[in-house]
């Protein structure tokens, strides 16, 4: 039995014994009165009242405190939701806006360029940067110049694969006659990448 249940049982027996004494003193031969049924909200209110008393009586462990806090929070949310439903309002959860892969990758590159102590290698960010470096919409010229400096230190398989992809993309662009707005910019970026890595 947990401490919470024990203290609840003690408080119930104390209230019952006090009620019994009152009933016996009022009517010595009368049968015991039936205990009134309590609803959940009364129990919740009693629990809330018991929490400060319990803390005074005995020190709660951090785990017990967390359990009590979670329980109270859950009950508060449930009560709020019930009130909103009664009012006829729809409950809509607003999700916090998460950063996109682009934002995270560009922040990663910016941290690297400023040589902050909190920069550390992240494979997924590097992969995004290398896949999207030729797209002018996803990566500005300012970020591309920082990426060229970053790629100067590129090693191993990432360096080789980047060279192979750049050469294949260059051949692809030379073969196709389709002229798009960003074609010259792409070709220039590919040349710069090949120049840095070769």
Please, could you describe this protein's structure?
By secondary structure, the chain is an all-alpha fold. It contains eight helices and no strands. Helix 4 packs across helix 6 (141-152) and helix 6 packs parallel to helix 8 (183-197). The radius of gyration is 34 Å and the shape is elongated.
Fill in the keyword field for this structure:
single chain; 198 residues; mainly alpha; 8 helices
Task: State the helicity in percent bands.
Answer: 55-70%
N-to-C SSE string, H for helix and E for strand: HHHHHHHH
Span of the ends, CA to CA = 71 Å
Shape: elongated
Low-confidence stretches: 14-26, 53-57
Question: What gyration radius follows from the Cα positions, in whole Å?
Answer: 34 Å
| Largest sheet, strands/sense/barrel | none
Short account of what is shown:
The chain has 198 residues and is an all-alpha fold. It has helices spanning 3-26, 40-57, 62-87, 101-113, 123-132, 141-152, 156-175, 183-197.
Indicate the topology:
Blueprint: H1 3-26, H2 40-57, H3 62-87, H4 101-113, H5 123-132, H6 141-152, H7 156-175, H8 183-197
């Amino acid at each position: 039995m947990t401490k919470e249940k024990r203290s609840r049982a003690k408080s119930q027996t104390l209230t019952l014994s006090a009620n019994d004494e009152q009933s016996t003193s009022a009517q010595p031969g009368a049968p015991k009165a039936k205990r009134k049924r309590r609803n959940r909200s009364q129990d919740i209110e009693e629990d809330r009242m018991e929490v400060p008393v319990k803390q005074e009586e005995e020190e709660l462990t951090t785990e017990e405190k967390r359990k009590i806090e979670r329980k109270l929070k859950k009950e508060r949310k449930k009560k709020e939701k019930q009130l909103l439903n009664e009012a006829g309002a729809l409950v809509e959860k607003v999700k916090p806006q998460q950063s996109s892969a682009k934002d995270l990758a560009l922040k990663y590159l910016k941290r690297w360029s400023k040589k902050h102590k909190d920069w550390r290698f992240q494979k997924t960010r590097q992969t995004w940067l290398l896949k999207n470096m030729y797209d002018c919409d996803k990566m500005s010229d300012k970020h591309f110049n920082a990426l060229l400096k970053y790629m100067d230190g590129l090693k191993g398989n990432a360096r080789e694969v980047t060279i192979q992809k750049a050469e294949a993309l260059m051949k692809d662009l030379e073969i196709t006659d389709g002229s798009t707005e960003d074609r010259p910019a792409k070709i220039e970026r590919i040349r710069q990448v090949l120049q840095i890595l070769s």
